[in-house]
Amino acid sequence: MAGGFLAYHEPGIVEILIIISFFFFLSLAKWLFNKVTRAGIIGQIAVGIIYGRPLANILEYPWQQTFLAIGYVGLILIIFEGGLQVRLDLLKQNFLLSILGAATGVCFPIGLSYLLLYLGFGYGAVETFIIGAALSATSLGTTFAVIASSAREIDLSQTRVGSVLVSAAVIDDVVGLVLSSVIDDLGELSGPDTSHANLGWIIGRPIVASAAMAILTPVFTKWVFAPIFRRWIEYKFARFDHVSNILLMVLVLSAFITIAAYSGTSVLFGAFLAGTFLTYLPSKHPDGPFVVMSREEGERNANKSPKFIHTFELYLLDTQQYLMEPLFFASIGFAIPFVELWTGKRIWRGILFTLLMTFAKFVVGLWIPLWKLMGPSNVSNPQKGSIETEGRSRATTKSPQVGKAKSGYGSASLAGLLLGSAMVARGEIGLLIIEVGYNETSYVSQEGFITAVWAILLNTIIGPVVVGYLVKYRGKQVGEGEWGLQKQEQPERPNSSGLDV
């Protein structure tokens, strides 16, 4: 009733010890797996499997639901941070290559699924499509976590191959989440009442919503919001430094994910667009208040402001890194039917399908050497401009210096291998799609569900492990190559319209 309250009582010592041990082992597992496999997220997924319903069920079910929700907010923040750090110049420069890579990353998993599951294992055509759609997604959360974890060796967000990776992963996830919406709505077609189901609307709505957000966001940002912000707002805005930044960040992120959710596309796509929106919003000319070399410069100068990524680091990065991100990867463990995986037939089918799906994403990396073969390399001039040093302070401490780019097919092949292996992880999006297909429709059998889970789980392990070792042993070569670190052009003065030219 109105005016009620929650009766406060001291939690029991067993509950307290369980929660303490859960968070302790999340941190310990990440550290151990980073040492052994260079992929700490695998340890956090393992802790989720042990503490969650799949195995020991140590955590109470309401806690697991709560941690899943908090972890998903952490996923939104991971992707939002990726949007804040993204190099828009590299995204534009490599957009066509990213489209080709993303298309390959969607078509190959679905096509190869039909070869093995439909023709080989005898699964249904719709069931095979749903499983292929689940394996066509690339885990955005894992992708950005891998980029962050590799920052000590090379800041992938400042590399050409990193920009292709981010773009292709985002596109693949948007396509995967659109397919998830379609699969979810297909439950209406398999249910008892199909007379009111509109197939065109079921398939068309998420596609139209995603395309509309992808097209309208940059258009309105460039021609409406950025000119207004740069001409009338940003100089007054900059006086309040982090306070004004965090308020705008919360408003923009909330608006984008709300629009995405109600329009029928993914809130994760909305989070990425929110980050890129804020990245583009401030003016880029040298006298602009947001053009600073460090957070400290923006804080101590009355006419300057820290960048949005600086504010994210100050207010949100620690909470995301040590609380929300571990809960997100643990929640993936909560969703894995671990005990049901272990029968002979399920194991060999799952491993065979895993190998096929690993190849289906590795093949995306072939586009880099093919791109070099098809035409002249379009690499930023290493003598022009300077790399931004903002972002995580640790990001460029050990990154290779940008000098004369090393060209050649060896460099392109290494970058292609890095791209392909980074695309392998499926993670949360793959699990979401296959669970929607299994729980919300009648098309996916238990055997098909288990086969898909095997591939999603093992690919989420294989991808980060390979990337971790590649970055450790070949990160410097990638950074010094033509697909590595790229310098940014010096910003120019704005024209009369308020837009930078």
UniProtKB/TrEMBL annotation:
Transport among keywords: yes
Protein name per the record: Cation/H+ exchanger transmembrane domain-containing protein
Entry GO terms, CC: membrane
Coiled-coil parts of chain: none
Signal sequence range: none
Keyword Transmembrane part of the UniProt annotation: yes
GO molecular function list: antiporter activity
Sorted UniProt keywords: Antiport, Ion transport, Membrane, Transmembrane, Transmembrane helix, Transport
Subcellular localization: Membrane
One of the GO biological process terms: proton transmembrane transport
